[in-house]
UniProtKB/TrEMBL annotation:
Entry-linked SUPFAM superfamilies: HAD-like, MTH938-like
Matches recorded under InterPro entries: AAMDC (IPR034096), HAD-like_sf (IPR036412), HAD-SF_hydro_IA (IPR006439), HAD_sf (IPR023214), MTH938-like_sf (IPR036748), NDUFAF3/AAMDC (IPR007523), PGP-like_dom2 (IPR023198)
GO cellular component: cytoplasm
Entry protein name: Beta-phosphoglucomutase-like phosphatase (HAD superfamily)
Source species, domain of life: Bacteria
Main subcellular location: cytoplasm
Pfam family, one: Hydrolase
Lineage: Bacteria, Bacillati, Actinomycetota, Actinomycetes, Micromonosporales
Assigned keywords, A-Z: Cytoplasm
Location(s), subcellular: Cytoplasm
Length: 334
């Protein structure tokens, strides 16, 4: 279940990354600095203070505040001439806004965000708009995405983020969100960032209400005999988990216990909440069985199922949860 969709701005809604590169490169070169081959990729997603400090490390004179002010003034002049709106982006945002509340999590300073949204005609569609200038750390830290989710009043793991850069994908994933990546042809994703994305699309127009992936399944943080700790759900003995949430699981709900084992009724809730893969734990000692009828039930619905002792099941589940709408039943004893 998805409760909100949060967009990045630069590279997703406006094709501004080449403009940023041109402006910052010119600023560095004209002030005696040394622009490097990987500078633009490093800067993408940084907060204003972070990238201004980085330009100082390249040999640009002045304080970070002075550098930032100079670059932003030049960007504002570029935007006065033309703001390069991504083809089809306004229509996509309007369509998605008809299904979910929207937020914006951008690395641009507020004055440039306002100008870009005004140019796209989308200002009123975003319930929350936030710059990394307004949080402690820029991307790839999760701060801006966590703050937008909080202001929207939704759990971060029930949000989907739309990003173009490697640092942006890392930021949203670190916040616990499912990520749709729309990488710019000139700035492809790093391999590790691509692995964090639930969906990679070549063009923003491929983002529709049907292609928005389900919310991320909550991560299991700790597991020990008789105890599980799940992100956002707290501590319990056993859990039933699925995309966007979960609850404590009492294995006697359907008379499961060791025999006859996990029943079809135990897994129905996982599928009802969007799971397309299922992980079933057999307990620490492998004593909890899975009824063959349950495996047939899942196979008939083309659901991939993994059955393993609890520790291995948790490892499998957490790996799948990064990119897949996975559900699971976890028993912390036996």
């Amino acid at each position: 279940m998805v409760d909100a969709v949060i967009f990045d701005l630069d590279g997703v809604l406006v094709d501004s990354e080449p403009v940023w590169e041109r402006v910052r490169r010119r600023y560095v070169d004209t002030r005696g600095g040394r622009w490097q081959a990987d500078t633009q990729r490093r800067l993408m997603g940084m907060s204003t203070g972070e990238w201004a400090s980085y330009l100082g490390e390249l040999g640009v004179p002045g304080t970070a505040d002075q550098i930032a002010a100079g670059v932003i003034d030049e960007m504002a002049r570029e935007y006065e001439v033309r703001i390069p709106v991504v083809d089809g982006a306004p229509e996509v945002v309007r369509r998605i806004a008809g299904h979910w509340p929207l937020g914006l999590a951008s690395s641009s300073p507020p004055r440039l965000i306002e100008a870009a949204l005004a140019a796209t005609g989308l200002t009123d569609l975003f319930r929350v708009t936030l710059s990394t200038e307004q949080v402690a750390r820029g991307k790839p830290a999760p701060d801006v995405y966590l703050a937008v989710a909080d202001r929207l009043g939704v759990a971060a793991d029930r949000c989907v983020a739309v990003e173009d850069s490697s640092n942006g994908v890392r930021s949203a994933a670190a916040a616990g969100m499912r990520v749709v990546a729309v990488p710019h042809a000139s700035y492809p994703l790093d391999p590790d960032a691509e692995q964090l994305a639930a969906l990679v699309i070549p063009d923003i127009t491929e983002l529709t209400e049907e292609t928005v992936p389900p919310a991320r399944s909550p991560r299991i943080l700790e597991i020990s005999w008789g105890r599980m700790l799940v992100d956002g759900l707290g501590e319990e003995k056993d859990f039933k988990l699925y995309p966007g949430g979960g609850r404590p699981w009492d294995w006697s709900e359907t008379g499961t216990r060791h025999e006859p084992g996990i029943q079809p009724a135990d897994v129905e809730e996982l599928l009802a909440n969007g799971a397309t893969r299922v992980v079933l734990s057999e307990g620490f000692e492998g004593r909890l069985r899975v009824d063959p009828a349950t495996l047939r039930f899942l196979a008939d619905r083309d659901v991939e199922v993994h059955v393993a002792p609890t520790e291995r099941a948790v490892e499998l589940y957490n790996t799948l949860a990064v990119r897949e709408p996975v559900g699971g039943l976890f028993h912390s004893t036996c």
